[in-house]
Amino acid sequence: MIRFVDGPHGAPDYAFTDASETALGAFLVGDVQTAGDWLLDLLAWTEEVRAGRSREEDWSGNSWVAELRPDGLHLFDTLSDDWEGHYALADASEVMLRYWRFLADRSSAGWTQRELTNWEHERSRAHPLRPVLGPSWSR
């Protein structure tokens, strides 16, 4: 189990009970950080691959490479040869949604709706998880 917390300097951090989840936590708080649009991209790509509308998606950040395939989310730390993580798409999506909620809870009023609206405007389509991301988390 992984949960998100405020770190000692106010930046997002994570706590875990299973060491196998550390790569996903480090990826989210280290590379995605507080960028709602990047997190929305990852959630959309995960859903697209999960639904079979896309065969593969990938993303590269400050130190992590993320590969989304039907067999899961595969994370590779480019700064450390031996740090990686592999997660079922459903599990990865659930953790990313928890991170979205964590960011929403610590952000200003309207953050969720602004992030979704900007993402959808820039991509000229509705986010595939809008029903989950939107109204219940609009602040």
Folded structure, characterized:
The structure is a single chain. This protein has about 140 residues and is an alpha+beta fold. It has one domain (about 1-135). Helices cover about 45% and strands about 20% of the residues. The protein has 5 helices and 6 strands, in the order ββααββββααα. It has helices spanning about 20-30, 35-50, 90-105, 110-125, 130-135, and strands spanning about 1-5, 10-15, 55-60, 65-70, 70-75, 85. The strands form 2 sheets. A 4-stranded antiparallel beta sheet has the order 3-4-5-6. The chain has a two-stranded antiparallel ribbon with strand order 1-2. β3 and β4 (about 65-70) form a beta hairpin. The longest helix is centred in the C-terminal third of the chain and has 18 residues, at about 90-105.
Question: Secondary structure elements and their pairing?
Answer:
Elements: E1 2-6, E2 12-16, H1 22-32, H2 36-50, E3 57-60, E4 64-69, E5 72-77, E6 84-87, H3 89-106, H4 111-123, H5 130-133
Antiparallel strand pairs: 1-2, 3-4, 4-5, 5-6
Helix pairs in contact: 2-3, 2-4
